[in-house]
What we know:
Layout: H1 8-11, H2 13-34, H3 36-58, H4 61-80, H5 84-99, H6 113-126, H7 146-149, E1 152-155, E2 161-167, H8 177-190, E3 196-202, E4 207-213, E5 231-236, E6 246-250, E7 253-257, E8 259-263, E9 273-277, H9 283-294, E10 299-304, E11 320-324, H10 327-353, H11 360-363, E12 366-371, H12 373-383, H13 393-398, E13 404-411, H14 420-425, E14 428-432, H15 437-444, E15 460-465, E16 470-474, H16 488-497, H17 523-529, E17 542-544, E18 564-566, H18 567-574
Parallel strand pairs: 9-13, 9-14, 10-11, 10-12, 12-13
Antiparallel strand pairs: 1-2, 2-4, 3-4, 5-8, 6-7, 14-15, 15-16, 17-18
The structure holds adenosine-5'-triphosphate.
Amino acid sequence: MARRPLPRILSNGGAQLARSRELARTAAAGATDVLQPLITIARGLRRLAATASRKWAETPKDRRGALLFLLASVVLVVALVPYGPLLAVVTVMTAAAWQGRDRTPPASQGPDDSQVQRLKSLYEALVPYFSVAEDPDPLYVHGGEWEKAFPAYEFDETGRFCQLVIRYPAYFTDGEAESRARIEHLLSAKAGRGREYHFAWDEEANHLSLTALAPLPTDIAAQRFVTAPGETVLGFTDPTQVQRTLPLTHGEEERDVPPVVWRTGVRSTEPHLLVLGQPGTGTSTLLRSVALQALLRGDLVIVDGGGTGEYACLTGRDGVLAVECGLTGALTSLEWATHETERRLVAVNQARQEGRPPPEDARRPLWILVDRPSAFAHLAAADGRRDPQSLLHVPLRHGRAANVTVVVADQLDALDLLGDAVRQHTRARVVLGPATADQVAAVLGAPAPTTPVDQVPPGRGYARLGAGPVHRIQVPATPDPYDDATSDAHRQAVLDLLPPRTTPADGEQAPVPAEAEPEAVPAAVKSVTAGTEMGTEKEEGTVATDAEPTALAPDDTAPVRTEAVPAKAVAAESS
Ligand SMILES: Nc1ncnc2c1ncn2[C@@H]1O[C@H](COP(=O)(O)OP(=O)(O)OP(=O)(O)O)[C@@H](O)[C@H]1O
């Protein structure tokens, strides 16, 4: 059947419509220009009429008759005088044109005195950095013209810079990190401390743009984020860096905020995460936030070297296989995690060879969250036992294919105590709290794009996924709900996200701090991992593992005692 061509309006209608719209817009603009005097006079007449009616309303009633008489007399005289009506019309039109003129005050041109002073002093401060004696036509010279050096600037209501573009001579070594750092340091001091600045170096055009950044929101509470399977929200960042936004509820209002989303799973290029920060900067909070999101679709093993019971709220919850605070429990759980990773790998490979999809029990995400493993390293060395970190080798190396994700958090000064496996395989990185430029660069592998400030709220830092850009980040407030210092709203937000309990109520006690007794395993954990110290003697909820501990990881040399593993964990292993 022959095809009939589409009517032209449908085939290239879009272009035609756009052209017609453009034509109409040009015609309207032309007409406005031509009719401008009439528009002004009409506006003036309206204003005169409004003034007249206001005056009439303000005139007392007993004087209105006299006023009317006066007006009528004036009209009569004007009508009788030669050319009177014509002169009257011209007078009224002139008055209307004067009244109808555009009265919006012209935008202030240029900076005021104090702003000029700021620009001048900044220019003078830059002279030693951007000039050399041999330059025949220097852009920067003492007493020179700042207008040429600063083509664009903007001030906020407090009179400080919020945006500034700086031209610099082509010979400035803008490709060297130290040269840049010197300029950025000077600019952030001169533009006002206490704020964060973003610097964009345009090496081609020899331009540097400084932008003062608004603080990131610190009031975002834990909540169910709208994410796809395999996505975890690490925190929130600047709108300039991320295209996507997440709808968030904040009290009763809703708003869209750009997130830093970390993708895990078999296709992830950054399957494991390392979080570092000074004490009290929110590393445990970030792990708790990750845990609550992971529990939506996966299982969790938590190993807490800090031993302050910050994960007690997760003990015995659906999907939480173990929460370990003692060295023995940590070794047991991580040993199991190693076996489980190996088991999943074998199952996945077998299914592939047989042309089947991987079995469900090898696909359900397993998360291993390890907080402060460096604390265990000391304990293990003192006790002559194996460092639990060494048991992370297999999950870190092979976890991606087995849907096993490892998250490690520790203090910044413990970076050297982290094993090679942790450092090599954690390609998603977060640094929280105050950190020097060198520390940030050492952890993230790239410098921070903004000047670090001394005072930052907990949960503030930088994140980098693989070789991607460095993002400023604020972790959502996900406090320990058992902490008295927590606000009710934030506590309730976390409690609402916790899965239901699956263990008896006697497992609900908060863990005992490990500092008090190095091997102290909290009651909650003991109920799951009891039997650890008792060899093969089994108690309710525990099963002794029959695996050879020394065969766990290729690089393991220290022998490990055969220990019990959580009943639920073994169930998962054998299912
Ligand atoms: N993103 C955040 N928003 C609001 N408050 C936070 C955030 N992160 C942490 N906090 C608060 O800061 C305090 C310390 O947090 P957290 O315990 O997570 O820090 P940490 O780095 O694990 O420190 P430590 O190792 O000493 O326990 C807590 O009171 C916590 O509620």
